[in-house]
Amino acid sequence: EEPKPSLRILMVGWVFSGKSAAGNTILRSEVFHFGERTMKALKQSGEVAGREVVVVDTPGWWKFFPASFIPEVFKTEILKGVSLCSPSLNVILLVVSLDSSFTDEQKRVTEDNMKLFGQRVWRHVIVLFTFGDALGNKTIEQHIESEGKPLRGLIDKCGKRYHVLDNMSKAGDQVTELLEKMEEMVAGNYSFYFSETDDLQQEEKNFKRGVSVLAITKCHSAGGAA
């Protein structure tokens, strides 16, 4: 049996949402520094459930401030995280901690910061809830329902893909289940890619016709010169 291809994961979310701890839980090793703010994109890898898993941790954004407040150096590091997932990024885990409420403000801030990855990013995103022990006796579905429209709206943007990790638990099945959800999403997805073109749908149509945006631009330029 051929080995499964590696799974390349980018962790994003607000500061102290538990990204680094989640990365450690997924890789089952203390490879990320938990308890201090992540300042640079950091790549770690290991074998999990019989396949190579690459996890890239990135600097978080401020929970109550829009993307314009993030220093450019941090934005650069977040985008660097995508390149560290070479040859292509498979999954973006959007980390949301369960130890605090998710309001309309958090939804706006989250969506504002996710614009950094382009308009089609949501088809590659799974919401990863951390601090699963904060649920107590509630299920995650009960929590999502009790939080109301903001959190339900975020889940909907991600195609209702979500998972819970208890970073204090050593139970391996929670990671195995997460990998299965990732594989299911990746199987039905295009590869993640960046484009500075605003109209990505038009760019995709041009690609299917075998004509690049650059070629179209050159044709227009040639016609104007004539």
From TrEMBL:
Exerts an anti-apoptotic effect in the immune system and is involved in responses to infections. The keyword Endoplasmic reticulum applies. Keywords: Cytoplasm, Endoplasmic reticulum, Golgi apparatus, GTP-binding, Mitochondrion, Nucleotide-binding, Repeat. This is GTPase IMAP family member 8. InterPro entries: G_AIG1, GIMA/IAN/Toc, P-loop_NTPase. The lineage of its organism: Eukaryota, Metazoa, Chordata, Craniata, Vertebrata. Its main location: cytoplasm. Residues 4-203 form the AIG1-type G domain. GO terms for cellular component: cytosol; endoplasmic reticulum; Golgi apparatus; mitochondrion. It comes from Seriola dumerili (Greater amberjack).
